[in-house]
Amino acid sequence: MKQKMQKPDKREYTLMIVPHHGKSVFSLRIPIKIVKYAAVTLGICLTILSGTMLNYRYQANIATQEKIELVQLREVSSKQNVELEELAKATAELQDNMNRLNQLDSDLRRMVNSEESAAVSRSAPVRIANYNGQGGPEVKPDIKQLTTLVNELKASVSEREKSLSNLKDALIEKNERLAVTPSIWPTNGEVSSRFGWRSSPWGMGSSWHPGIDIANDIGTPIVAAADGTVVNSGWYGGYGKMIEIDHGNGIVTIYGHNSRNLVEAGQRVKKGETIAHMGSTGISTGPHLHYEVRVNGTAVNPSTFL
After folding, report:
1. Cα–Cα distance for residue pair 251/297, rounded to 1 Å
2. Pairwise CA distance, residues 225 & 270, whole Å
Protein backbone atom coordinates (compact mmCIF):
# COMPACT_ATOMS: atom_id res chain seq x y z
CA MET A 1 0.00 0.00 0.00
CA LYS A 2 1.52 3.21 -1.08
CA GLN A 3 2.08 5.85 1.51
CA LYS A 4 0.27 9.05 0.95
CA MET A 5 2.54 11.91 0.00
CA GLN A 6 2.21 14.78 2.49
CA LYS A 7 1.50 17.92 0.71
CA PRO A 8 3.55 20.95 1.60
CA ASP A 9 1.86 23.46 3.83
CA LYS A 10 1.25 26.43 1.63
CA ARG A 11 -0.66 28.50 4.12
CA GLU A 12 0.29 32.09 4.47
CA TYR A 13 -0.27 34.95 6.87
CA THR A 14 -1.10 38.31 5.39
CA LEU A 15 0.03 41.41 7.18
CA MET A 16 -1.90 44.48 6.04
CA ILE A 17 -1.07 48.08 6.76
CA VAL A 18 -4.02 50.42 6.20
CA PRO A 19 -2.98 54.06 6.14
CA HIS A 20 -5.31 57.05 6.79
CA HIS A 21 -6.73 59.47 4.33
CA GLY A 22 -7.44 56.93 1.64
CA LYS A 23 -3.94 55.98 0.78
CA SER A 24 -3.30 52.58 -0.74
CA VAL A 25 -3.23 49.57 1.56
CA PHE A 26 0.10 47.77 1.97
CA SER A 27 -0.03 44.04 2.43
CA LEU A 28 2.69 41.51 3.16
CA ARG A 29 2.22 37.77 2.82
CA ILE A 30 4.31 35.60 5.13
CA PRO A 31 4.41 31.85 4.51
CA ILE A 32 3.57 29.66 7.50
CA LYS A 33 6.99 28.00 7.26
CA ILE A 34 8.76 31.26 7.90
CA VAL A 35 6.53 31.92 10.90
CA LYS A 36 7.28 28.47 12.29
CA TYR A 37 11.03 28.87 11.70
CA ALA A 38 10.93 32.31 13.28
CA ALA A 39 9.05 30.95 16.33
CA VAL A 40 11.53 28.10 16.77
CA THR A 41 14.47 30.45 16.34
CA LEU A 42 12.96 32.88 18.81
CA GLY A 43 12.38 30.06 21.29
CA ILE A 44 15.96 28.89 20.93
CA CYS A 45 17.23 32.45 21.38
CA LEU A 46 15.08 32.97 24.44
CA THR A 47 16.28 29.69 25.90
CA ILE A 48 19.92 30.60 25.25
CA LEU A 49 19.36 34.09 26.64
CA SER A 50 17.66 32.75 29.75
CA GLY A 51 20.50 30.27 30.33
CA THR A 52 23.04 33.00 29.76
CA MET A 53 21.27 35.27 32.25
CA LEU A 54 21.05 32.51 34.83
CA ASN A 55 24.70 31.62 34.36
CA TYR A 56 25.65 35.29 34.58
CA ARG A 57 23.74 35.70 37.82
CA TYR A 58 25.33 32.52 39.20
CA GLN A 59 28.83 33.64 38.21
CA ALA A 60 28.12 37.12 39.56
CA ASN A 61 27.08 35.64 42.91
CA ILE A 62 30.21 33.49 42.99
CA ALA A 63 32.36 36.50 42.12
CA THR A 64 30.68 38.54 44.86
CA GLN A 65 31.30 35.80 47.44
CA GLU A 66 34.88 35.41 46.30
CA LYS A 67 35.37 39.16 46.54
CA ILE A 68 33.98 39.17 50.06
CA GLU A 69 36.17 36.22 51.02
CA LEU A 70 39.18 37.90 49.43
CA VAL A 71 38.58 41.07 51.43
CA GLN A 72 38.22 39.01 54.59
CA LEU A 73 41.38 37.06 53.79
CA ARG A 74 43.24 40.29 53.18
CA GLU A 75 42.06 41.61 56.52
CA VAL A 76 43.07 38.39 58.26
CA SER A 77 46.39 38.35 56.42
CA SER A 78 47.05 41.97 57.36
CA LYS A 79 46.23 41.22 60.99
CA GLN A 80 48.42 38.11 60.94
CA ASN A 81 51.29 40.09 59.44
CA VAL A 82 51.03 42.62 62.26
CA GLU A 83 50.92 39.81 64.84
CA LEU A 84 53.82 38.12 63.12
CA GLU A 85 55.87 41.30 63.27
CA GLU A 86 55.04 41.71 66.96
CA LEU A 87 55.94 38.07 67.60
CA ALA A 88 59.22 38.53 65.76
CA LYS A 89 60.05 41.58 67.88
CA ALA A 90 59.10 39.78 71.09
CA THR A 91 61.17 36.76 70.07
CA ALA A 92 64.13 39.00 69.27
CA GLU A 93 63.83 40.64 72.70
CA LEU A 94 63.68 37.20 74.28
CA GLN A 95 66.83 36.28 72.40
CA ASP A 96 68.59 39.39 73.71
CA ASN A 97 67.53 38.48 77.23
CA MET A 98 68.88 34.94 76.76
CA ASN A 99 72.19 36.37 75.55
CA ARG A 100 72.39 38.59 78.62
CA LEU A 101 71.65 35.57 80.81
CA ASN A 102 74.44 33.69 79.07
CA GLN A 103 76.84 36.52 79.83
CA LEU A 104 75.60 36.79 83.42
CA ASP A 105 76.05 33.04 83.88
CA SER A 106 79.59 33.27 82.56
CA ASP A 107 80.42 36.24 84.81
CA LEU A 108 78.97 34.53 87.88
CA ARG A 109 80.96 31.39 87.20
CA ARG A 110 84.16 33.41 87.00
CA MET A 111 83.22 35.06 90.29
CA VAL A 112 82.63 31.70 91.96
CA ASN A 113 86.25 30.86 91.09
CA SER A 114 86.12 27.18 92.01
CA GLU A 115 87.22 24.11 90.10
CA GLU A 116 83.78 22.60 89.81
CA SER A 117 82.24 25.83 88.51
CA ALA A 118 85.13 27.40 86.61
CA ALA A 119 83.84 26.25 83.23
CA VAL A 120 81.81 28.79 81.33
CA SER A 121 78.23 28.08 80.39
CA ARG A 122 77.76 25.50 77.67
CA SER A 123 74.54 27.13 76.60
CA ALA A 124 75.36 28.54 73.18
CA PRO A 125 73.71 31.73 71.93
CA VAL A 126 70.65 31.21 69.80
CA ARG A 127 70.81 32.32 66.20
CA ILE A 128 68.32 34.91 65.09
CA ALA A 129 67.46 36.46 61.74
CA ASN A 130 68.02 40.20 61.23
CA TYR A 131 64.33 40.98 61.38
CA ASN A 132 64.90 44.70 61.79
CA GLY A 133 67.62 45.00 59.16
CA GLN A 134 70.35 45.34 61.76
CA GLY A 135 73.65 44.65 60.11
CA GLY A 136 72.07 43.94 56.73
CA PRO A 137 68.99 44.38 54.54
CA GLU A 138 65.56 44.18 56.14
CA VAL A 139 64.20 40.66 56.16
CA LYS A 140 60.52 39.93 56.74
CA PRO A 141 59.95 37.19 59.33
CA ASP A 142 58.08 34.10 58.34
CA ILE A 143 56.54 31.20 60.20
CA LYS A 144 59.39 28.83 59.37
CA GLN A 145 62.02 31.20 60.74
CA LEU A 146 60.04 31.89 63.90
CA THR A 147 59.32 28.20 64.44
CA THR A 148 63.02 27.41 64.14
CA LEU A 149 63.89 30.25 66.49
CA VAL A 150 61.30 29.21 69.05
CA ASN A 151 62.64 25.64 69.00
CA GLU A 152 66.16 26.94 69.51
CA LEU A 153 64.99 29.15 72.36
CA LYS A 154 63.28 26.18 73.99
CA ALA A 155 66.50 24.21 73.82
CA SER A 156 68.44 27.22 75.11
CA VAL A 157 66.02 27.66 78.01
CA SER A 158 66.50 24.01 78.94
CA GLU A 159 70.28 24.40 78.84
CA ARG A 160 70.03 27.68 80.74
CA GLU A 161 67.92 26.07 83.46
CA LYS A 162 70.39 23.22 83.80
CA SER A 163 73.37 25.59 83.79
CA LEU A 164 71.89 27.96 86.36
CA SER A 165 70.82 25.03 88.50
CA ASN A 166 74.41 23.75 88.50
CA LEU A 167 75.63 27.26 89.27
CA LYS A 168 73.16 27.52 92.13
CA ASP A 169 74.40 24.22 93.56
CA ALA A 170 77.99 25.42 93.20
CA LEU A 171 77.20 28.70 94.95
CA ILE A 172 75.32 26.91 97.73
CA GLU A 173 78.23 24.51 98.18
CA LYS A 174 80.71 27.36 98.21
CA ASN A 175 78.62 29.37 100.66
CA GLU A 176 78.34 26.31 102.87
CA ARG A 177 82.11 25.89 102.78
CA LEU A 178 82.61 29.58 103.51
CA ALA A 179 80.08 29.44 106.33
CA VAL A 180 82.01 26.67 108.10
CA THR A 181 85.44 28.13 107.30
CA PRO A 182 86.81 30.41 110.06
CA SER A 183 87.43 33.33 107.74
CA ILE A 184 86.55 36.38 109.86
CA TRP A 185 88.25 38.05 112.83
CA PRO A 186 86.63 36.81 116.03
CA THR A 187 86.90 40.21 117.75
CA ASN A 188 88.21 43.75 117.45
CA GLY A 189 91.48 44.83 118.94
CA GLU A 190 95.25 44.79 118.58
CA VAL A 191 97.19 41.62 117.82
CA SER A 192 99.46 41.41 120.84
CA SER A 193 100.97 38.00 120.06
CA ARG A 194 101.17 36.04 116.82
CA PHE A 195 101.23 32.35 115.97
CA GLY A 196 104.52 30.48 116.51
CA TRP A 197 107.53 30.85 118.76
CA ARG A 198 107.56 33.88 121.04
CA SER A 199 109.30 35.23 124.11
CA SER A 200 107.53 34.16 127.25
CA PRO A 201 105.59 37.03 128.83
CA TRP A 202 106.78 35.73 132.23
CA GLY A 203 110.46 35.87 131.32
CA MET A 204 110.85 32.12 130.91
CA GLY A 205 112.58 32.10 127.52
CA SER A 206 110.83 31.17 124.29
CA SER A 207 107.61 29.24 124.09
CA TRP A 208 105.34 27.91 121.37
CA HIS A 209 102.18 29.93 120.91
CA PRO A 210 99.51 27.88 119.03
CA GLY A 211 97.25 30.83 118.19
CA ILE A 212 97.02 34.60 118.11
CA ASP A 213 96.22 37.01 120.94
CA ILE A 214 93.93 40.00 120.28
CA ALA A 215 93.93 42.56 123.10
CA ASN A 216 91.10 44.97 123.90
CA ASP A 217 88.92 46.07 126.80
CA ILE A 218 87.14 43.61 129.06
CA GLY A 219 83.64 42.93 127.75
CA THR A 220 84.53 43.37 124.06
CA PRO A 221 82.24 41.03 122.06
CA ILE A 222 83.72 37.83 120.66
CA VAL A 223 82.01 36.19 117.69
CA ALA A 224 82.12 32.75 116.10
CA ALA A 225 84.55 32.74 113.19
CA ALA A 226 82.33 30.28 111.29
CA ASP A 227 79.19 28.17 111.55
CA GLY A 228 79.55 25.19 113.82
CA THR A 229 78.60 23.30 116.98
CA VAL A 230 79.89 24.21 120.43
CA VAL A 231 81.64 21.16 121.84
CA ASN A 232 83.08 22.79 125.01
CA SER A 233 82.06 25.85 127.00
CA GLY A 234 83.52 26.38 130.45
CA TRP A 235 86.75 26.57 132.45
CA TYR A 236 89.71 24.84 130.86
CA GLY A 237 92.99 25.20 132.78
CA GLY A 238 95.26 28.02 131.63
CA TYR A 239 92.70 29.02 128.97
CA GLY A 240 90.33 30.16 131.71
CA LYS A 241 86.81 30.43 130.41
CA MET A 242 87.04 28.82 126.98
CA ILE A 243 84.75 27.95 124.08
CA GLU A 244 85.56 25.26 121.50
CA ILE A 245 83.56 25.07 118.26
CA ASP A 246 83.60 22.20 115.78
CA HIS A 247 83.07 23.42 112.19
CA GLY A 248 83.26 20.04 110.50
CA ASN A 249 85.83 18.79 108.00
CA GLY A 250 88.29 18.43 110.93
CA ILE A 251 88.33 22.19 111.66
CA VAL A 252 87.99 23.43 115.26
CA THR A 253 88.33 26.96 116.69
CA ILE A 254 89.15 27.85 120.33
CA TYR A 255 88.36 31.11 122.14
CA GLY A 256 90.15 31.50 125.52
CA HIS A 257 90.44 33.85 128.54
CA ASN A 258 86.83 35.01 128.21
CA SER A 259 85.15 36.98 130.98
CA ARG A 260 81.79 35.44 130.10
CA ASN A 261 80.65 32.61 127.84
CA LEU A 262 77.28 33.11 126.13
CA VAL A 263 76.82 29.65 124.57
CA GLU A 264 76.66 26.10 125.86
CA ALA A 265 77.99 22.76 124.63
CA GLY A 266 75.80 21.25 121.92
CA GLN A 267 74.55 24.62 120.71
CA ARG A 268 74.66 25.51 117.01
CA VAL A 269 76.16 28.90 116.22
CA LYS A 270 76.40 31.01 113.07
CA LYS A 271 79.37 32.90 111.67
CA GLY A 272 79.45 36.36 113.26
CA GLU A 273 77.20 35.38 116.20
CA THR A 274 78.37 36.75 119.57
CA ILE A 275 79.46 33.82 121.74
CA ALA A 276 81.46 35.45 124.58
CA HIS A 277 82.91 38.63 126.07
CA MET A 278 86.64 39.33 126.29
CA GLY A 279 88.35 38.88 129.65
CA SER A 280 91.57 37.86 131.35
CA THR A 281 90.69 34.54 132.98
CA GLY A 282 93.17 31.69 133.31
CA ILE A 283 96.87 32.33 132.75
CA SER A 284 96.77 35.84 131.33
CA THR A 285 98.63 39.14 131.69
CA GLY A 286 95.66 41.29 130.66
CA PRO A 287 92.34 41.31 128.85
CA HIS A 288 92.63 39.66 125.47
CA LEU A 289 91.29 36.79 123.34
CA HIS A 290 93.44 33.77 122.70
CA TYR A 291 92.22 32.44 119.34
CA GLU A 292 93.25 29.09 117.87
CA VAL A 293 92.42 27.17 114.69
CA ARG A 294 93.07 23.44 114.67
CA VAL A 295 92.86 21.16 111.62
CA ASN A 296 92.60 17.46 112.43
CA GLY A 297 93.91 18.19 115.92
CA THR A 298 96.94 20.23 114.83
CA ALA A 299 97.12 23.96 115.52
CA VAL A 300 97.61 26.04 112.36
CA ASN A 301 98.19 29.73 111.83
CA PRO A 302 94.76 31.44 112.00
CA SER A 303 96.03 34.19 109.68
CA THR A 304 95.92 31.76 106.77
CA PHE A 305 92.13 31.69 107.09
CA LEU A 306 91.66 35.46 107.43
Report:
1. 8
2. 8
